[in-house]
Design brief:
mainly beta; 11-stranded parallel beta barrel; single chain; 451 residues
Length: 451
């Protein structure tokens, strides 16, 4: 290994070790070993993988700290890979000298407002594991082109930008697994202006990624924030599973925020959001312009506005989720606006409004929607309504239980259909309160049990 102290680094937290570390990169054997200590640097440690060969950076089991006192990332990995994940697209020099760059077991702290943690572009099979990154701007930034990235067992904590930031990035195959990503002002995992395929976000604790801990003005953000509305952007083939995704309500905030725009090519989508604990934001899951998303088996709780908000979406499947309020000052509810071809099945939505509190959001709101199937769900204790549909057509509500279970009833009506519509169906439900059905909504009611 190349011990950076043998190349002149002091590790005393006061001496500028930048040149010694760069000397190690240039003249060492590619394994940069940082013994226990605090290594102050004033500019980026740039590592050209094609020039120096395979690289591994190790912080002696986490006992070494890098303090970045200048602008830019503490470490920048620079490759030349321009192909895809297909082995036939990988040039010989990439496998010979650039494959599998690794940064592990090290702490990175920022002491400059524009310091970042790690930056990587045009790399192949980069691995970042057991790294603590804090008080920087962006924790890990991926851009331009990367393939087969693994980020695991890291603490990315209290940074002024995003925890993991992917911008202007072309990337296929990335696993973000088993990390703690929290208190990052502009989001936990943030993707903008990028083309991403095969992203797995699994088993992480992603929480409190907004302005509050930084005591700044709120900005729209999320624990997982994805914006593909720019020209050429798309994010597909995504799994978000078995994470804890929590926050505190912030203006324009969400736990999961996805903004998509269908282009001239294949439609967006191929998303699965399953088995997560999601809660405590303005909107918990907020999707705009999305097509082809499955949200299943999640516990989604406590929102300032909605648990799920869908705007201009299609082919969204909400299955087997539990929606409830956790605490007296927030609310529960699902809202679909200008959306079509969606299925809501096997979900439980309960408001649990406290005594003396009036919730203004009905449990399920449908506004200008078409071809929505609501099957086998429970809507309990809604205020003002259990299900509230306006200017909707081809809505099928079947096999649901829509009740106010409280001793003092607060639900105005179990179901309301307002405005004009056609071919709506309300059948085989258990309905505990009155219904308000406008004639012009064209609702057929059949085989319902009214208590």
């Amino acid at each position: 290994m190349s011990d950076v102290r043998k190349f002149g680094a002091k590790g005393d937290g006061e001496t500028d070790d930048t040149n010694a570390i760069l000397h190690t990169v240039k003249n060492g054997d590619g394994y940069l070993h940082f013994p226990r200590g605090v290594y102050l640097i004033s500019k980026t440690i740039d590592i050209s993988l094609d020039r120096v060969g395979p690289v591994s950076i190790d912080g002696n089991g986490g006992t070494a700290k890098i303090v970045m006192a200048g602008k830019g990332p503490a470490f920048r990995l620079v490759g030349t890979h321009t192909g895809t994940g297909d082995p036939n697209s990988v040039k010989p020099n990439v496998f010979q000298s650039q494959r599998f760059p690794t940064i592990s077991n090290i702490e990175i702290e920022g002491r400059h407002p524009h310091a970042d943690g790690i930056e990587s572009f045009q790399t192949m099979q980069a691995v970042f594991e057991r790294v603590l990154i804090h008080h920087v701007r962006h924790g890990i930034r991926l851009y331009r082109r990367n393939r087969n990235v693994i980020i695991s067992q890291c603490h990315i904590y209290f940074n002024t930008g995003a925890g993991i930031f992917m911008d202007r990035l072309n990337l296929h195959q990335i696993n973000i697994v088993g990390n703690h990503i929290s208190y990052n002002r502009l989001g936990g995992i943030r993707i903008e202006a990028s083309e991403i395929r095969n992203l797995q976000i699994t088993g992480n604790d992603i929480e409190y990624n907004n302005h509050r801990a930084h005591k700044t003005e709120p900005e729209p953000t999320a624990e997982i924030y994805i914006d593909t509305t720019g020209e050429g952007s798309s994010v597909e083939e995504i799994t978000v599973a078995s994470n804890t995704i929590q926050a505190t309500p912030s203006s324009g905030g969400a736990n999961i925020r996805i903004k998509e725009k269908a282009g001239n090519g294949r439609p967006p989508g191929l998303w699965s959001i399953s088995g997560n604990i999601i809660g405590n934001q303005e909107n918990n899951v907020h999707l705009t312009g999305c097509h082809g998303v499955v949200v299943s088996g999640n516990f989604i709780y406590s929102c300032d506005q909605r648990n799920v908000l869908l705007e201009n979406c299609s082919q969204i499947n909400l299955t087997g989720n539990s929606f409830r309020r956790h605490g007296p000052n927030l609310r529960t509810g699902v809202r679909l606006v200008d959306s079509s071809d969606c299925v809501i099945t096997g979900c439980t939505v309960q408001d649990e409004t406290a005594e003396g509190q009036t919730t203004k959001a009905s449990l399920l709101e449908l506004v200008r929607c078409e071809r929505i199937n609501v099957l086998g769900c429970q809507f309990l204790d809604g205020v003002p309504f259990g299900i509230d549909a306006s200017d909707c057509s081809y809505i099928n509500v079947t096999g649901c239980t829509i009740l106010d279970t409280r001793t003092t009833k607060k639900t105005r009506a179990a179901v309301r259909f307002a405005g004009a519509g056609k071919a709506n169906l309300l059948s085989s439900n258990i309905i505990g309160d009155a219904v308000q059905i406008a004639k012009e909504a064209n609702v057929t009611m059949a085989n319902n049990v009214t208590l």
